[in-house]
Amino acid sequence: MADCRRVRLLALLLSLSSCMYFTQGLKAPSNSNDNLPDNADALRNQGGPLQEGKLAAVAGASSPRRGSGWKLAEEEACREDLARLCPKHSWNNNLAVLECLQDRKEETEIASDCNHLLWNYKLNLTTDPKFESVAVEVCKSTITEDVHSQGEVIACLEKGLVSEAEDQAGHYVIKDDCKKAIMRVAELSSDDFHLDRHLFFACRDDRERFCENTPAGEGRVYKCLFNHKFEESMSGKCREALSTRQKLIVQDYKVSYSLAKACKQDLRKYRCNVDTTLPRGREAKLSYLLLCLESAVHRGRSVSGECQGEMLDYRRMLMEDYSLSPEIVLHCRGEIDTHCSGLHHKGRTLHCLMRVSRDKGIMDNLCQKALQTLIQETDPGADYRIDRALNEACESVIQTACKHIRNGDPMILSCLMEHLYTDKMVEDCEHRLLELQYFISRDWKLDPILYRKCQNDAARICHTHGWNETSEFMPPGAVFSCLYRHAYRTEEQGRRLSRDCKTEVQRILHQRALDVKLDPDLQRRCMTDLGKWCSEKTEPGQELECLQDHLEDLGSDCRDVVGNLTELESEDIQIEALLIRACEPVIQSHCHEVADNQIDTGDLMECLVLNKHQKEMNEKCIVGVTHFQLIQMKDFRFSYKFKMACKEDVLKLCPNIKKKVDVVICLSTMVRNDTLQEVKDQRVSMKCRRQLRVEELEMSEDIRLDPELYDSCRQDIKDHCQNVAFGNAQVIECLKDNKKHLNQRCHQKLFKLQETEMMDPELDFQLMRVCKQMIRRFCSESDPKNMLLCLKQNKNSELMDPKCKQMITKRQITQNTDYRLNPVLRKACKADIPKFCQQVLSKARDDTELEGQVISCLKLKYADQRLSPDCEDQIRVILQESALDYRLDPQLQLQCSEEIPRLCAEEVAAQEQTGQVEECLKVNLLKLKHEGCKKEVLNILKESKADIFVDPVLHTACALDIKHQCAAIPPGRGRQMSCLMEALQDKRVRLQPECKKRLQDRIDMWSYAAKVAPAEGFSDLAGQVLSSPAKNYILSMMSMCVVLLFLMGLLCGRITKRVTQELKDR
Fold first, then answer.
1. E-assigned strand segments in 232-352
2. Residues whose CB is less than 8 angstroms from the CB of residue 166 and which lie 6 or more positions away in sequence, other chains included
3. Which residues of 764-777 are buried (b: 16+ CB within 10 A; e: fewer)?
4. Percentage of residues in the chain with pLDDT exceeding 70?
5. Which residues, in sequence order, are CB contacts of 357 under 8 Å at separation 6+?
6. Cα–Cα distance between 479 and 291 in angstroms, integer?
7. Which residues belong to the signal peptide in this entry (predicted)?
8. Is 61 exposed, middle or buried (0-12, 13-18, 19+ CB in 10 A)?
9. What confidence tens digit (pLDDT) does each residue in 581-602 have?
10. Which residues contact residue 1061 at a Cβ distance below 8 angstroms, ignoring those fewer than 6 apart?
């Protein structure tokens, strides 16, 4: 071992395996004749045709070993070159002379005779006992009898060196000086495979099979054999010998003649081999060479095409065979044995390890780091062809989906990611692609396009190092996280990314949205939460959706990163690549203008929400858009446009409120109160009020967007609306239809919603959807707050759509159940309601309908003509509407629920309600058994005295007579009814028979009503008189009676008691 230590780098051992050719007495082996032609081939390559003198040199070199005093410098063939190229102090050391001439011959011409002499000296070098002593210790299990068997010593030492690097069990520790010598021998044999005798004999047949036409010299045969290493017909011995040589190249790139030669100038140019005194130091490793030169390429520096070609070959070599990377062999041994045994060929083992790391997450940290380092060294992101497993799996996809991109372009990987989970993607390619992208995503530098466009921004903002420099303190994905945090900054915030860098960051974000594992920061922080909440979510994109759904339940670190990502999505929804794919038809039809904008700022999602129910919208898109809307409810920051418009208002007016729905309620309440109080300077800013409007409209579409209402009504939805689909406010409408059966809490919340909708009809999604065309036709210029009023006014138009008319009627029925649901009536009668209906109000409960009691109270006061003018006008409208449709009178419906089906079934079944049911009840007044129903019908009769318009049957029958007899009399306060009654009594006036009959019926009904429902007090009596059609007659008679009584009193008093003058004078 001491001898081996003294050997200089010249340990030209390995290649010189011919040392093994000779016996201990250094006699030519019996098969030396077989070797000569190979040597001759080498000579032809080096010096042209064989000459007798050159063969003699070969023979001389093959002769028995010279004495120990023989000097290479004394040989005539090399004396001139030696004097010219090598320092004189080295002449006494044969190894130093050989090393000098070997190194310099690439730069200058050396005499051919000297070349041949050096070649043969190298061939015979390893017969030196100095190598034998080491080989016996290292290879005692392999070399049993003849230590000089063909190339065995060198091969054994090489394997010993490799075993030590891989920390294999039972390896022999070789000292550093000897390692240097072994590597130097391998380097000196790098140009001609004949010099590596072990490999030569192991691969002789394979060379003829695969590389017959490849000339020897300059490492060409080595490269040819490397390319065929995994061919099925390659012999096992040759494959093993090739692997050993490749492993030596990994440890020292100079063992590859072609690589060292091609990249020599570039290495010097970029100072990649500064420490030339340590051939096996860091600078000598293949990984260092690759990283250094790849760094230059990524920085846009010039590296020769020949060198880049060699680098490509060796990067592919490392990706194909994991065993060439000693760190992976050393640290991933357990994972390989457990999960990846038997997958050695064509990079399958590496992809298996990548899959274990990605899917199982149980990989040792050192193994994970070794894999990440290998991916950086090979840099498959720059050229997908380096990854043979990926190349073969994705070849068909590349030919179809990415054929427009130049072969080997870095954009191929991006193209494949864009087609992930599409019909063009095949399963095997999908797996290989995600396995590779898992590691590329953990180092932003491994995406060459991103690095090229963002390296200056990263250095300026994120304080990054060079391409081939790493920081132990910077976790995976930290640089990219830094970049995307600055990608969407405004000019006011400063420190923005350049436009090109932002584009690339957006591209990466779009790709990462496809799989949560492609976001290392998110996966690292959410590992526990993913296992706890989302273990069953395996479909594309489901894991992130799951984390968003459980946002409140996540750990603080995970909640922060998911929140930040969701906030980012709200600004640029195109990050959600799967959603954008699903929504492509509706985007092309309705949102292409905003989709084409380079700056999104939430416009695209807003467009998708507005067009959520277009015919182009498919189920996947609807689900995706709705899910994003639901997520936005969790935090107002998740709605970009709302956040930007209302951030200052929220901080000032609604501090400490985070949930978007609560923020919307807080701000909208302030807007409503300020509007009702007619405050001049509203507290909520104009831009926030505009965006608040958008948010309120969106929330009205789906009950799930109002979490408080949804939670309160969850059980009722299950009981009454189980088969009703969410969206289009269908569930809300279902609850309205079943409100009598709802639990108290749900009923209260629904009442509050209806109150809001009636104050602002635009928030009534079903009304606005069903009546969309009618609004355009009749109410295009109306104030949105008066939209329902406008529709009611045009309800009976011949052009009114039947479905819209039906919806308007439903809203009228709702309004008449409680005055609070009719904002116009509430405002007009705000003084009359507490004045006349306090008894009803005192029994009322908040958030519960009064079932029309207040309106019924106001109707009676209308009949008594005691309401204020504004309130009277509104009650008249209600009376007219309810007279035509009994359903608009909730008290009548409630009290006569049994009588109406029993007595008026045909009228109820009529398609159009024109007052037939009320007329039926009036006609059958004597048949009514329920006192409450009878009272309501009597009230209707009482109300009809006040205005003929509230009696549609009578008004229709007498319309012509009113026109002829009462045209000059204004309607209201019973005036036209009195006119008709006077005309009926006037024998000179001939009324229409139908009108006359109807009037006589009404007189009979009023008479009966007066009998069964006498006045309950003086006020009622006065009201009945004043509302009577014959009130003038009654009042005149009453006046005559009073006058008569007065006169009688005067006269009778004089007669009955005369007082004498005397009595007066007392």
1. none
2. 326, 329, 330
3. bbbbbebbeebbee
4. 83
5. 363, 367, 368, 371, 438, 439
6. 19
7. 1-25
8. middle
9. 899 999 999 998 888 776 667 8
10. none
DSSP string over 943-1007: HHHH-GGG-HHHHHHTHHHHHHHSTTSPSSTTHHHHHHHHHHH-TT----HHHHHHHHHHHHHHH
pLDDT in tens, 358-409: 887 778 889 999 999 999 999 999 999 999 999 999 999 999 999 999 998 9
User: For 926-973, how does the pLDDT look when each residue is reduced to its tens digit (9 = 90+)?
Assistant: 888 888 898 888 888 888 877 787 888 888 889 898 888 888 888 777
CA distance 493 to 505: 18
Mean per-residue pLDDT, 295-309: 90
pLDDT over 50 (residue 121): yes
Concatenated DSSP letters of 252-276: -GGGSHHHHHHTHHHHHHTTS---T
Token pair for residue 558?
């995970």
Cβ-proximal residues to 808 (8 Å cutoff; 6+ apart), any chain = 767, 771, 788, 791, 792, 795
Query: Model confidence at 1061, in pLDDT bands (50, 70, 90)?
Result: low
Tell me how many degrees the CA angle 921-926-928 measures, rounded to the nearest 5: 60
* DSSP per residue, 364-397: -HHHHHHHHHHHHHH-TTT-GGG-HHHHHHTHHH
b/e map 941-957, b = 16+ CB within 10 Å: bbbbbbbbbbbbbbbeb
CA–CA distance, 924 with 920 (Å, rounded to integer): 6
pLDDT of residue 1025: 61
Contact present, 64 and 27 (Cβ < 8 Å): yes
- Give Cβ neighbours of residue 954 (< 8 Å, ≥ 6 apart): 944, 948, 995, 998, 999, 1002
DSSP state of 16: B
From the CB of residue 332, how many other CB atoms can be counted at a distance below 10 Å? 26
Reported as a single tens digit per residue, the pLDDT across 71-92 is: 777 787 787 877 888 887 777 7
Quote the DSSP letter at residue 553. Answer: G
| Residues 310, 226 contacting (CB under 8 angstroms) | no
Rounded distance between C-alpha atoms, residue 588 and residue 576, angstroms: 17
- Residue 740 · residue 703 · CB < 8 Å: no
The C-alpha atoms of residue 704 and residue 735 are separated, in whole angstroms, by 13
Distances (CA, A) of 246 to 122, 280, 326, 934: 21, 15, 11, 106
